Amino acid sequence: MSNQLPVINLMGPTASGKTALACELYEQGNFELISVDSALVYRDMDIGTAKPSKAEQAQYPHHLIDIISPLEVYSAAQFVEDASKLIDGIHAKGKTPILVGGTMLYFKALLEGLSSNLPSADYAIRAEIEAQGEQEGWESVFAALCKVDPLAGEKFKVSDKQRIIRALEVYRITGQPITKLQAEQPKNVPYRYTFHNYALLPDRLELHKRIEKRLEIMWDIGFLNEVESLIEKYDLTDDLPSMRSVGYRQALDFLLKSDKSLENKKEMEDKALFATRQLAKRQYTWLRSLQQSHKFKTYLTIKQAQEDLRNCYG
After folding, report:
1. What CATH code would you report for 123-184?
2. Quick one: where's region Interaction with substrate tRNA (predicted)?
3. Is the pLDDT confidence value at 4 over 90?
């Protein structure tokens, strides 16, 4: 359709180089950048989120960075609402929006719409389900889901913790299976856009090296000091969505629940590294899932992506 305006989506796991790629593309033409990152929305959380520096943001302005405090909640539905308004505003200026980030749920919500009759997140219920998983094992939690939502039990695996938590959360809030509610609700698909989807999917060993290097730099430049400042400024608890971000949860536990010994510090750093690798693994899984339903171009290296996108948009 001729009235469908373009939206460029640049996706990839953490530390894959997607932000640098977006900034280079920004310089090639008439673009504006929109962040698709559930951690970058928080003010004062800079080092642990690998947020672009103030100088970088001045040179490459990003929408949807630093928009709420770490005490607030930001949902996928809110992202779709905010991003859609921004996209329309950018198109109205005759520019093309580039959405860049690694929060695949946000991309999925934008590409496919959301079921509007599903309840918002209840973090107390989520914490209860997580505690049950830790105490009784996730097989027990998965069995509880299968009992109340057999269809979800067929779709999910025991390792799909976030999906299991969400499905049980919805059931506890509504008394109905999430699969039933999803089937009943027509999705609000933003037909007025044409999405051009690109994904950076580096070799996993290479990505693990990049993640390890990034974390080393974070510790060196004062990530723990940043978390200490957050504790002083805000009434933080470990069940806040902001503090569930990888790195922050581990640092918060270390600062508030340990004797801060070198042994515990090393254990915290190892846990943060493991959690970040697990995040990357989930991001790969999300991307593979999205690729089953949407047209994508994928790149193994940043150089490969730079050359191709320069030809497309330079």
Report:
1. 1.10.20.140
2. 37-40, 162-166
3. no
Q: What is the pLDDT of residue 188?
A: 58
Residue numbering of the annotated binding site for ATP:
12-19
Annotated binding residues, written as ranges, equal 12-19
**pLDDT, mean over the chain:** 92
3-state secondary structure of 91: helix
pLDDT grade for 181, boundaries at 50, 70 and 90:
confident
Annotated binding site for substrate: 14-19
What pLDDT is stored for residue 3 in this prediction?
66
b/e map of 291-304 (b: 16 or more CB within 10 Å)? Answer: eeeeebebbeebee
DSSP SS3 for 294: coil
